[in-house]
């Protein structure tokens, strides 16, 4: 029984770490997009800025999914559903 609880705790920590990493990635993508938005852009830089927006959006979606996974794992642990 104790070994199972330890395994569940280790799995929860893994999911929590994945969530933190996804949020950190999203923050980095936001900062990269912000940096490109704060210059007097050339045409090429506008394209870069738009590309950064798509990367930010993808990172946001990964963070949202990681959050859902973490919330689900917490619910499972606390409420068994």
* Helix segment tally: 2
Helix/strand-derived category reads mainly alpha
Q: Which residue ranges are poorly predicted, with pLDDT under 50 across at least 5 consecutive positions? A: none
Q: Considering DSSP H and I runs of 4 or more, what fraction of the residues is helical? A: over 70%
Shape: rod-shaped
Mean pLDDT: 93
Strand content: under 5%
Give the termini separation.
Answer: 19 Å
What does this structure look like?
The structure is a single chain. The chain is an all-alpha fold and 81 residues long. It contains two helices and no strands.
Layout: helices, strands, pairs:
Elements lengths: L1 H36 L5 H37 L2
Descriptors:
81 residues; mainly alpha; 0% strand
Brief digest:
It contains two helices and no strands.
